[in-house]
Write a structure and sequence with these properties.
Oligomer: single chain
Order of helices and strands: HHHH
Shape: elongated
Helix content: over 70%
């Protein structure tokens, strides 16, 4: 018989076995492994181990071989399969964490870009306002001309007053 839940609007709580771990620490650990697995050093070491493994199991007497060639190097195949079965999920986990960081960085970049555009538009409007205000300001040459005209009129008025 299927047991019905009372409230179907809320998701069920995840069932845990009783184990807990720090997801961030595990993520950093997996990124470290994925970073190492993607290096030439790892490939060189893995190639060297495989060459030594195969050479040992071909060159030494059968009684001290741990993975005989005639059985098809079953243990080597098992070890490499085990390595691949752990490496793939760790690499995917590292990629997912990097994708999450990239998403956060893209959102931050988008916000900074929007603020920069807004600030640029504000400064352009302010600059246009300053230019408009400066267009009404009298220049030094205009002021000298007006002062010269004013001085000429004062002289004219002074001359007329003296004539009377």
């Amino acid at each position: 018989m299927v047991k019905r839940r009372e409230d179907l609007t809320a998701p069920r709580e995840a069932r845990r076995i009783g184990m807990s771990y720090d997801a961030d620490a595990f993520g950093q650990f997996s990124e470290g492994i994925a970073r190492y697995l993607g290096t030439a050093r790892f490939l060189v070491w893995q190639t060297a181990v495989i060459i030594v493994w195969i050479s040992w199991n071909l060159a030494v007497p059968e009684r001290i071989q741990f993975d005989p060639w005639d059985r098809g190097l079953v243990l080597l195949t098992l070890v490499l399969s085990l390595q691949a079965s752990y490496a793939a999920p760790l690499i995917l986990l590292a990629q997912n964490r990097q994708e999450a960081r990239d998403r956060v960085q893209a959102a931050t970049d988008r916000n900074v870009s929007e603020r920069t555009q807004s600030d640029t538009e504000f400064l352009a409007r302010e600059l246009a306002g300053v230019r408009l205000m400066l267009s009404d300001v009298v220049t030094g040459e205009e002021l000298r001309e007006q002062l010269a005209e004013l001085a000429a009129k004062v002289d004219e008025l002074s001359r007329r007053l003296e004539e009377r």
